Amino acid sequence: MPTILEVVSHAHPEDFRTRTAVLGMRVMMLLILALVVTAYLNGLITDLRVWGPALLTFLAVVLLTLLQWTTLQHRWLGRLLLWLLFAVVIASLTAAGTIPELQSAVLAADLAVVALSAVMTGLIAHTTISVLVAASYLAVALTGGERPADIIVPLVAVAGVSLAVGMLTRGFRRESRLATERLETLKAREVDLARLYDVSTATSAAETVQEALPVLVGRIGQYLHAQVGALLLRDPHRPYLNVMSPIWTVGNALEVDGYRIPLRNAGDLERVYLSGSPAIFQDIDQDPDVHGLLGELGVHNAIAAPMKVEDRTLGVMVLADKVDGTFTEDDVEALVSLSTPTALAIAQLERIEEAAQTSKKMEELAAMKTDFVSVVSHELRTPLTSIIGSLATLTRPEFQPADEMARDLLDSARSQADRLRRLIEDLLIVSRIEGRALPTQHELIDLEALLAAALVDIPNTERVTIECAPISLRSDPDHLQRIVINLVENALRYAPDAAVEVTATESDGAVTISVVDHGPGIPAEVRDRVFERFTQLGPTSTRKQGGTGLGLAIVRGLVSALGGTVRLKDTPGGGATFEVWIPKAPPDAPSGQHKRSNDEE
């Protein structure tokens, strides 16, 4: 049975079995050495119970090395020597465990021995060694006068390590066995696919089974010098063999839509399907009534082979009327070698068709999800607006409660209601962006005034500075303001103790708005997905800073709707800089507006 190291490596299993054995022996030597060092530190190095077992273990390892134990480990003698090595180590630890000062170190060594036994031995040997280790520790503890209550925890630890490592090793071994089986299956398929290479190249352009079948049968028929070829596939719902249309003939194609054969019939092709064995049929035209479909085709001789994928038979492949004589056993073998990869190709095409249908359904589900979010967001906005209005009314002097705690609760409710409003608005915008239904209303904008207005609703903006020359552009003010707000809030959230700079410049018919922070910056592993939905800097930072991870996704969607681009750069000295490029006129306007290319970015 393979060891755990064999599972996690692609090298030959026998090599790793040897490496595992050598590594285990070294670890055991280190255990004894650590025990000797502990005894030395406690002034017990001269005790016979320490150096005697240590010397015995050393001699046992040397003896195993001289006997070239690694070459014998797969025989009964090698397994016996392994048992002796474990017995010597357990005996050594038992002797050292009688010294009270070394009992803690012995317990740690016992746990290591249990773990090593799971890696180096099989299930029965591992269980036996675990029982011996537990019995050894129990005997030493009881003879040393330990109370039974003090022994329970160490024994439970030994049992837990034994069970956990044993189960883990068993799982790895099972996966190794399954992986080996799958590898063997893939190798067999590789041989079949290599044989079918010439045939499969003719079907590379086919997208459906109906397109691929005539090409497959025609190429195989030409390869085996047949004049007629047909495929019969098992009906997935009823016990029939469906004759796939068209039936290939030399220079012609015979359409047979709707032709099927009940499997209860005793015809030639039904027997090939049910038995799973290929067959040769001669002199069919002499008694066509007993040959079913072959007799109806009017052929003289034929061969048929079942098309199998793993343990499933998809149908039967038939070739008839060989040009240069009669079919032979070599022809049967060739058909069998080609029918299996053909079945694999058909199964793969069926999976592609199913995947395409599934993809279409997933797109429909995604559209339904977007519509659902949009509808729910709309429906939530109405009651939430009433709630926010009612809370705002309660804050008026004539309605404010006299109790200070009630006022604090009222302020908290207003804050959370406003937070919920922002979340609903974000979800609504995201759903509209996904559905490509985001409306834009372009009008003339004073950019300096818009930047100043964007900061009004943001708390803690005393750290934010604005540098903007007089700039006018035609764009959607709501979208542009939302872009600025999201970028500034993002900078304030992740750079809480640093200044944030908002600058705007114009050049070549476009405006560039930069939001610069001097915080920790964006980690390299997040940069490629920073504009995706629900992407945040990490679990710890997310919980500390808050947020939903929708802000930058909304920024990218809004910027795209305005015909612009957004990109992330490093701030010199540390931090992150988001640059938004917006045309001074809408993308469909007749002005000289143009979109910056990727090279300019």
Topology:
Elements (H helix, E strand, L loop, with lengths): L3 H4 L5 H29 L6 H19 L2 H4 L3 H22 L5 H18 L2 H21 L4 H48 L1 H4 L8 H15 L2 E9 L5 E4 L3 E3 L2 E3 L5 E3 L5 H8 L3 E3 L11 H5 L4 E8 L2 E11 L6 H66 L9 H31 L8 E4 H8 L9 E5 L3 E4 L1 H18 L5 E8 L2 E8 L6 H4 L11 H7 L5 H11 L3 E6 L5 E8 L18
Parallel strand pairs: 10-12
Antiparallel strand pairs: 1-2, 1-3, 1-8, 2-5, 3-4, 6-7, 7-8, 9-11, 12-13, 13-15, 14-15
Overview of this structure, please?
With 601 residues, this protein is of the alpha+beta class. The protein has 19 helices and 15 strands. The protein has helices spanning 4-7, 13-41, 48-66, 69-72, 76-97, 103-120, 123-143, 148-195, 197-200, 209-223, 268-275, 293-297, 329-394, 404-434, 447-454, 477-494, 524-527, 539-545, 551-561; strands at 226-234, 240-243, 247-249, 252-254, 260-262, 279-281, 302-309, 312-322, 443-446, 464-468, 472-475, 500-507, 510-517, 565-570, 576-583. Strands 1, 2, 3, 4, 5, 6, 7 and 8 form an 8-stranded antiparallel β-sheet that branches. Strands 10-12-13-15-14 form a 5-stranded mixed β-sheet, covered by helices on one side. Strand 3 and strand 4 (252-254) form a beta hairpin. Helix 2 (13-41) packs antiparallel against helix 3 (48-66) and helix 3 runs antiparallel to helix 5 (76-97). The two termini are 59 Å apart. The model is unreliable at 1-16, 539-546 and 589-601 (pLDDT under 50).
Task: Specify Rg, calculated over alpha carbons.
Answer: 39 Å
According to DSSP, the number of beta strands is 15
Query: How many angstroms does the end-to-end distance come to?
Result: 59 Å
Per DSSP, the total helix count is 19
Q: How confident overall, as mean pLDDT?
A: 75
Q: How does the major sheet shape up?
A: 8 strands, antiparallel
Shape estimate: flat
